[in-house]
């Protein structure tokens, strides 16, 4: 997979317009994030780990099939907004494990500070790690999460970042500091504001998922 893959599909565009719309209430916003997350999950798992197995069809014919090894996948949502994508991925990856990384952002410096890390001690069983965060803006939170993962022993080439919105600044940070990491996003917006928001974007995804009715 290339460094960044942009999801291009009318179904994704339909969910994006609901997510962008300031008139979308919390239930509409959540549903649209969930549906977009499913489309992102399909794209992000094109090279998911599999193994070969034998099954017998109703025609009494034995055939070779490919079986998903989703138990070899670790989902890492960045709190809090990343939680909005977890169920989308688990609907396709029911055996995947989930570990949380929590970041708080200094609104003056825009730097990220780690406050939660629930990574398992043994990460050797995982062949793919998928970092989930709807918004890749400055990239500071994502970079901090990637640092935590790599320091814990994850090979950067096994990591994929999945987001709904990205800007070039955040993408550039990842490409510079972690060139082996790939990114899947639904769109790349043109502007990062001076307060660290994506524009036109969708506002604060965490607030719209959990606080605003």
Layout of secondary structure:
Layout: E1 4-6, H1 10-20, H2 26-44, E2 50-56, E3 62-68, E4 73-79, H3 83-90, E5 97-98, E6 101-105, E7 112-117, E8 128-132, E9 135-136, H4 140-151, E10 159-166, H5 168-177, E11 182-188, E12 191-192, E13 198-199, H6 205-210
Parallel strand pairs: 1-11, 4-5, 4-6, 4-8, 8-10, 9-10, 10-11
Antiparallel strand pairs: 2-3, 6-7, 12-13
Keywords:
alpha/beta; two-stranded antiparallel sheet; globular; 13 strands
The parts where pLDDT drops under 50 for at least 5 residues are: none
Helix content: 25-40%
Compute the number of strand runs: 13
The helix tally amounts to: 6
| Overall 3D shape | globular
Order of helices and strands: EHHEEEHEEEEEHEHEEEH
Major β-sheet profile: 9 strands, mixed
The first-to-last residue Cα distance is 38 Å
Q: In percent terms, what proportion of residues is strand?
A: 25-35%
Rg result: 18 Å
Structural class: alpha/beta
Q: On the 0-100 scale, what is the average pLDDT?
A: 93
Verbal overview:
With 213 residues, this protein is an alpha/beta fold. Helix 4 links the parallel strand 9 and strand 10. The longest helix is centred in the first third of the chain and has 19 residues. The termini are far apart. The chain is 31% helix and 30% strand. Strands 1, 4, 5, 6, 7, 8, 9, 10 and 11 form a 9-stranded mixed β-sheet that branches. The chain has a two-stranded antiparallel ribbon with strand order 2-3. It is built from 6 helices and 13 strands.
